[in-house]
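Please produce the structure of this protein holding phenylalanine.
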Amino acid sequence: MTDSANGNSSATPQAIERLTSSAERELEALGGEGEKLEAWRVKYLGRRGALTSILRSLGSLPAADRRVAGAAANRAKARLEGLLDKRLAASGTPGPIGAIDVTLPGRRHVRGRLHPSTQTIQEILAAFNAMGFQTVEGPQVEWERYNFDMLNIPPDHPARDSHDTIWIDRSGGDGILLRTQTSPMQVRTLESTTPPVRIVVPGLCYRFEATDATHEWQFHQIEGLAVDTDITFADLKGTLYEFARRIFGPDRKVRFRCDFFPFVEPGVEMAVDCFKCFGQGCRLCKQTGYIEILGAGMVHPNVLRNAGHDPERYTGYAFGMGPERIAMLRHGIDDIRHFFANDLRFLTQF
Ligand code: PHE
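Below is the modeled complex.
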């Protein structure tokens, strides 16, 4: 690299003039081959080229000299670049300007997007938020008492069998587990709040299951809970009906049928009339005309009592649904394992 002493000696207008002329002569003598032209460019105009070095060394000149030499060096640079461009154009080699082919189609920028589960969760939450429900979240690593006992599922209860639990530590009196449902947030919320309560709780849940097209060991749930002094089953029906219309379309019919969950009484499952065949019967609804989308019910008195509330004073309803299942139904996705396989061919479709 040229030091300033060396730079100074060559940074006179005369020296620049000499350099330019010899560069020009050299260029004229060159054949048209792109490689040779490129070597010439590197020698004079490259990052460490002769002219570039002069331009770099200008800073160490006295101000008056710097102005004169700078002007000369810039003129020289423009001249050599112009000559090179002409030669490149003549030889058919694209130069700095010729390199831009304005007829090429533009390069598409790939836009980021939200995961289909996230999109569905956000839509569902928005529907409930609009009806006055507040979004809260809870821990994925949970105490056994919140996930089971306080939800009216004692240790010997058969309902525990259907929740194949992933245990973290079972040695203490109160085990630690990965929550199998978002329902523990019913208890946590009721414990720390005085009704009225209206919440929706999105979050990941885990079950120790063999996976197949409809079962994953990791999945989302959205829990809902409303507790106040005068809440009735009619409120449950009205709210969930409105939700179904917002998410599945304004003409949806809903159907409630008895179901059992230990922490509600009475318990129901809600179905909407098939939004593909409109109740006629098709593969999606397995010819029944209806599609089950969630479990719900009136909060069991034991749950209110466990959380420190008087079931004679307060009533409420709770519901729980799987957003992956809802996304599958809406988009015709045939395998729940797609959601967490991280295959872009799947994810970029949403
Ligand atoms: N937690 C239940 C499940 O995982 C769903 C549910 C939530 C049912 C709230 C009723 C009320 O199956």
